[in-house]
Design brief:
Blueprint (H helix, E strand, L loop, with lengths): L10 E4 L5 H6 L7 E4 L9 H13 L2 E4 L13 H13 L5 E4 L2 E4 L2 E7 L5 H18 L4 E3 L13 H12 L2 E5 H11 L3 H6 L6 E6 L3 E4 L2 E3 L8 H14 L4 E3 L8 H24 L1
Parallel strand pairs: 1-2, 1-12, 2-3, 3-4, 4-7, 7-8, 8-9, 9-12
Antiparallel strand pairs: 5-6, 10-11
Helix pairs in contact: 4-5, 8-9
Length: 282
Protein backbone atom coordinates (compact mmCIF):
# COMPACT_ATOMS: atom_id res chain seq x y z
CA UNK A 1 0.00 0.00 0.00
CA UNK A 2 1.97 2.96 -1.32
CA UNK A 3 1.46 6.45 0.08
CA UNK A 4 2.14 9.82 -1.58
CA UNK A 5 5.66 11.12 -1.10
CA UNK A 6 6.34 14.20 0.99
CA UNK A 7 5.75 17.77 -0.17
CA UNK A 8 8.91 19.20 -1.76
CA UNK A 9 9.20 21.97 0.85
CA UNK A 10 8.70 19.69 3.87
CA UNK A 11 11.21 20.04 6.73
CA UNK A 12 11.62 17.16 9.18
CA UNK A 13 13.33 15.88 12.30
CA UNK A 14 14.51 12.48 13.44
CA UNK A 15 12.18 10.64 15.80
CA UNK A 16 14.70 9.91 18.54
CA UNK A 17 13.71 8.63 21.97
CA UNK A 18 15.33 11.53 23.89
CA UNK A 19 13.18 13.91 21.83
CA UNK A 20 9.84 12.12 22.25
CA UNK A 21 8.37 14.53 24.80
CA UNK A 22 9.53 17.62 22.92
CA UNK A 23 8.22 16.31 19.60
CA UNK A 24 4.82 15.52 21.11
CA UNK A 25 4.60 18.96 22.70
CA UNK A 26 5.89 20.92 19.69
CA UNK A 27 3.70 23.66 18.27
CA UNK A 28 2.07 22.99 14.88
CA UNK A 29 4.39 23.99 12.06
CA UNK A 30 7.60 23.32 14.00
CA UNK A 31 8.30 20.37 11.69
CA UNK A 32 6.44 18.75 8.81
CA UNK A 33 7.51 15.11 9.03
CA UNK A 34 9.49 12.67 11.16
CA UNK A 35 12.02 9.98 10.31
CA UNK A 36 12.39 6.80 12.37
CA UNK A 37 14.59 3.73 12.26
CA UNK A 38 12.04 0.89 12.06
CA UNK A 39 14.35 -1.54 13.88
CA UNK A 40 14.02 0.69 16.95
CA UNK A 41 10.21 0.67 16.93
CA UNK A 42 8.86 -2.59 15.48
CA UNK A 43 7.19 -4.48 18.32
CA UNK A 44 7.75 -1.73 20.90
CA UNK A 45 4.82 -1.30 23.28
CA UNK A 46 4.11 0.44 26.54
CA UNK A 47 4.66 4.16 27.01
CA UNK A 48 7.26 4.37 24.25
CA UNK A 49 5.04 2.54 21.79
CA UNK A 50 2.11 4.80 22.63
CA UNK A 51 4.22 7.93 22.10
CA UNK A 52 5.45 6.60 18.76
CA UNK A 53 1.91 5.74 17.63
CA UNK A 54 0.71 9.19 18.66
CA UNK A 55 3.38 10.97 16.60
CA UNK A 56 2.94 8.61 13.63
CA UNK A 57 -0.78 9.39 13.62
CA UNK A 58 -0.21 13.16 13.66
CA UNK A 59 2.72 13.59 11.27
CA UNK A 60 3.93 11.97 8.04
CA UNK A 61 6.57 9.38 8.87
CA UNK A 62 9.44 8.09 6.75
CA UNK A 63 11.60 5.15 7.78
CA UNK A 64 15.37 4.94 7.50
CA UNK A 65 16.76 1.46 8.06
CA UNK A 66 19.88 0.51 9.99
CA UNK A 67 20.34 -3.23 9.59
CA UNK A 68 19.27 -4.57 6.19
CA UNK A 69 22.84 -4.64 4.82
CA UNK A 70 21.77 -4.25 1.19
CA UNK A 71 25.37 -4.66 0.03
CA UNK A 72 26.43 -7.40 2.43
CA UNK A 73 27.40 -11.01 1.65
CA UNK A 74 24.78 -12.75 3.79
CA UNK A 75 21.33 -13.56 2.43
CA UNK A 76 18.74 -10.81 2.73
CA UNK A 77 16.68 -11.11 5.89
CA UNK A 78 13.35 -11.62 4.12
CA UNK A 79 11.56 -12.46 7.37
CA UNK A 80 12.47 -8.98 8.61
CA UNK A 81 11.32 -7.46 5.32
CA UNK A 82 7.89 -9.07 5.68
CA UNK A 83 7.59 -7.64 9.20
CA UNK A 84 8.85 -4.30 7.92
CA UNK A 85 6.19 -4.20 5.21
CA UNK A 86 3.46 -4.69 7.81
CA UNK A 87 4.96 -1.89 9.90
CA UNK A 88 5.20 0.51 6.94
CA UNK A 89 1.62 -0.23 5.92
CA UNK A 90 0.32 0.08 9.47
CA UNK A 91 1.80 3.57 9.88
CA UNK A 92 1.15 4.70 6.28
CA UNK A 93 4.85 5.31 5.67
CA UNK A 94 5.40 6.83 2.20
CA UNK A 95 9.10 6.00 1.94
CA UNK A 96 11.65 3.53 3.29
CA UNK A 97 15.37 4.08 2.82
CA UNK A 98 18.56 2.21 3.62
CA UNK A 99 22.29 2.90 3.48
CA UNK A 100 24.28 1.97 0.38
CA UNK A 101 26.59 -0.16 2.48
CA UNK A 102 27.10 -3.47 4.27
CA UNK A 103 26.53 -3.85 7.99
CA UNK A 104 26.68 -7.60 8.49
CA UNK A 105 28.05 -10.90 7.26
CA UNK A 106 27.18 -14.57 7.66
CA UNK A 107 27.92 -14.33 11.39
CA UNK A 108 25.49 -11.50 12.04
CA UNK A 109 25.41 -7.75 12.55
CA UNK A 110 28.66 -5.80 12.65
CA UNK A 111 26.99 -2.64 14.03
CA UNK A 112 28.74 -0.36 11.58
CA UNK A 113 28.13 0.92 8.05
CA UNK A 114 30.89 -0.55 5.91
CA UNK A 115 31.66 0.79 2.42
CA UNK A 116 31.27 -1.46 -0.59
CA UNK A 117 33.93 -2.05 -3.24
CA UNK A 118 33.34 0.26 -6.17
CA UNK A 119 33.23 -2.47 -8.82
CA UNK A 120 30.85 -3.73 -11.48
CA UNK A 121 30.35 -6.94 -9.50
CA UNK A 122 29.31 -4.96 -6.42
CA UNK A 123 26.91 -2.87 -8.52
CA UNK A 124 25.18 -6.03 -9.79
CA UNK A 125 25.13 -7.59 -6.30
CA UNK A 126 23.62 -4.64 -4.45
CA UNK A 127 21.22 -3.70 -7.26
CA UNK A 128 19.76 -7.21 -7.30
CA UNK A 129 19.25 -7.08 -3.53
CA UNK A 130 17.59 -3.67 -3.73
CA UNK A 131 15.23 -4.95 -6.42
CA UNK A 132 14.36 -7.96 -4.26
CA UNK A 133 13.76 -5.64 -1.29
CA UNK A 134 11.43 -3.51 -3.40
CA UNK A 135 9.53 -6.59 -4.53
CA UNK A 136 8.93 -7.76 -0.96
CA UNK A 137 8.05 -4.32 0.38
CA UNK A 138 5.80 -3.56 -2.58
CA UNK A 139 7.29 -0.10 -3.03
CA UNK A 140 10.30 1.69 -4.40
CA UNK A 141 12.96 2.42 -1.78
CA UNK A 142 15.74 4.99 -1.54
CA UNK A 143 19.40 4.34 -0.79
CA UNK A 144 21.68 6.83 0.93
CA UNK A 145 25.18 7.83 -0.13
CA UNK A 146 27.19 6.96 2.98
CA UNK A 147 30.26 8.53 4.55
CA UNK A 148 33.32 6.27 4.62
CA UNK A 149 36.95 6.52 5.68
CA UNK A 150 38.55 3.69 3.70
CA UNK A 151 37.27 1.70 0.73
CA UNK A 152 38.00 -2.01 0.10
CA UNK A 153 38.57 -1.55 -3.65
CA UNK A 154 37.84 1.19 -6.15
CA UNK A 155 37.71 0.19 -9.80
CA UNK A 156 35.48 3.22 -10.43
CA UNK A 157 34.84 6.56 -8.79
CA UNK A 158 32.29 6.77 -5.96
CA UNK A 159 29.93 8.89 -8.08
CA UNK A 160 29.99 6.33 -10.90
CA UNK A 161 29.27 3.53 -8.43
CA UNK A 162 26.33 5.36 -6.85
CA UNK A 163 24.84 6.25 -10.23
CA UNK A 164 25.26 2.71 -11.56
CA UNK A 165 23.44 1.23 -8.56
CA UNK A 166 20.58 3.72 -8.84
CA UNK A 167 20.14 2.97 -12.53
CA UNK A 168 20.39 -0.83 -12.32
CA UNK A 169 18.19 -1.10 -9.22
CA UNK A 170 15.78 1.57 -10.48
CA UNK A 171 15.53 2.94 -6.96
CA UNK A 172 15.51 6.40 -5.42
CA UNK A 173 18.28 8.36 -3.73
CA UNK A 174 18.35 9.64 -0.17
CA UNK A 175 20.80 12.49 -0.73
CA UNK A 176 22.99 13.11 2.30
CA UNK A 177 24.63 16.50 1.75
CA UNK A 178 26.80 16.27 4.86
CA UNK A 179 28.22 12.92 3.69
CA UNK A 180 29.33 14.51 0.41
CA UNK A 181 31.22 17.22 2.32
CA UNK A 182 32.79 14.61 4.62
CA UNK A 183 33.86 12.31 1.77
CA UNK A 184 35.04 15.13 -0.48
CA UNK A 185 37.32 16.37 2.29
CA UNK A 186 38.59 12.96 3.36
CA UNK A 187 39.11 11.57 -0.15
CA UNK A 188 40.09 14.70 -2.02
CA UNK A 189 37.36 15.26 -4.58
CA UNK A 190 35.13 18.21 -5.53
CA UNK A 191 31.87 18.17 -3.57
CA UNK A 192 29.98 20.35 -6.04
CA UNK A 193 31.10 18.25 -9.02
CA UNK A 194 29.88 15.13 -7.20
CA UNK A 195 26.53 16.78 -6.51
CA UNK A 196 26.11 17.96 -10.10
CA UNK A 197 26.68 14.42 -11.38
CA UNK A 198 23.80 12.95 -9.36
CA UNK A 199 20.41 12.26 -11.00
CA UNK A 200 18.22 14.89 -9.41
CA UNK A 201 15.04 13.18 -10.58
CA UNK A 202 15.81 10.26 -8.26
CA UNK A 203 16.25 12.36 -5.09
CA UNK A 204 13.42 11.37 -2.74
CA UNK A 205 14.55 13.54 0.15
CA UNK A 206 17.65 15.07 1.68
CA UNK A 207 19.64 14.63 4.89
CA UNK A 208 21.53 17.54 6.39
CA UNK A 209 23.64 17.20 9.53
CA UNK A 210 26.70 18.35 11.41
CA UNK A 211 30.09 16.67 11.63
CA UNK A 212 33.33 16.88 13.62
CA UNK A 213 36.52 18.37 12.18
CA UNK A 214 39.30 16.08 13.39
CA UNK A 215 41.84 17.84 11.16
CA UNK A 216 41.92 20.07 8.09
CA UNK A 217 41.77 16.98 5.88
CA UNK A 218 39.70 14.69 8.12
CA UNK A 219 36.02 15.07 8.95
CA UNK A 220 34.07 12.61 11.10
CA UNK A 221 30.37 12.09 10.37
CA UNK A 222 28.88 12.36 13.85
CA UNK A 223 25.34 13.81 13.58
CA UNK A 224 26.20 15.36 16.93
CA UNK A 225 26.81 19.01 16.05
CA UNK A 226 25.16 21.95 14.33
CA UNK A 227 25.26 22.15 10.54
CA UNK A 228 28.26 24.17 9.38
CA UNK A 229 28.64 26.69 6.57
CA UNK A 230 30.08 24.25 4.01
CA UNK A 231 27.10 21.91 4.40
CA UNK A 232 24.62 24.79 4.23
CA UNK A 233 26.26 26.03 1.04
CA UNK A 234 26.08 22.60 -0.59
CA UNK A 235 22.44 22.26 0.47
CA UNK A 236 21.72 25.58 -1.26
CA UNK A 237 23.45 24.25 -4.37
CA UNK A 238 21.39 21.04 -4.25
CA UNK A 239 18.19 23.10 -4.20
CA UNK A 240 19.50 25.24 -7.07
CA UNK A 241 20.24 22.14 -9.15
CA UNK A 242 17.28 19.93 -8.25
CA UNK A 243 14.70 22.29 -6.81
CA UNK A 244 13.37 22.10 -3.25
CA UNK A 245 13.30 18.59 -1.83
CA UNK A 246 11.95 17.33 1.51
CA UNK A 247 14.82 17.81 3.96
CA UNK A 248 15.53 16.17 7.28
CA UNK A 249 17.79 17.69 9.93
CA UNK A 250 19.66 14.77 11.53
CA UNK A 251 20.74 14.86 15.16
CA UNK A 252 21.54 11.58 16.89
CA UNK A 253 23.18 12.66 20.16
CA UNK A 254 24.50 15.72 22.00
CA UNK A 255 21.04 17.22 21.64
CA UNK A 256 20.72 20.98 22.20
CA UNK A 257 17.62 22.47 23.82
CA UNK A 258 14.67 21.72 21.55
CA UNK A 259 14.18 25.42 20.76
CA UNK A 260 17.70 25.50 19.28
CA UNK A 261 17.02 22.39 17.22
CA UNK A 262 13.77 23.92 15.98
CA UNK A 263 15.61 27.13 15.08
CA UNK A 264 18.15 25.14 13.06
CA UNK A 265 15.28 23.42 11.28
CA UNK A 266 13.91 26.90 10.65
CA UNK A 267 17.09 27.64 8.70
CA UNK A 268 16.29 24.62 6.53
CA UNK A 269 12.76 25.90 6.04
CA UNK A 270 14.04 29.35 5.00
CA UNK A 271 16.29 27.78 2.38
CA UNK A 272 13.45 25.66 1.06
CA UNK A 273 11.23 28.74 0.78
CA UNK A 274 13.94 30.65 -1.08
CA UNK A 275 14.45 27.74 -3.48
CA UNK A 276 10.70 27.53 -4.07
CA UNK A 277 10.56 31.24 -4.89
CA UNK A 278 13.44 30.92 -7.36
CA UNK A 279 11.74 27.97 -9.07
CA UNK A 280 8.43 29.86 -9.20
CA UNK A 281 10.10 32.92 -10.71
CA UNK A 282 11.86 30.77 -13.31
Amino acid sequence: MSQPLLAPDAAGLGLRRPLLGSLQAALPGTFDFLEAAPENWIGVGGTLGEAFADLASRYPLVCHGLSLSVGGPAALDETFLVRLRRFLDQHRVPLYSEHLSACGDSRGQLYDLLPLPFTDAAVHHVAARIRRTQDILGRRIAVENISYYAAPFQAMAEIDFVNAVLAEADCLLLLDVNNIIVNATNHGYDAQAFLRALPGERVAYVHVAGHYDEAADLKIDTHGAAVNDAVWALLDEAYRLFGPKPTLLERDFNFPPFDELAAELGAVRQRLAAARQVRHAA
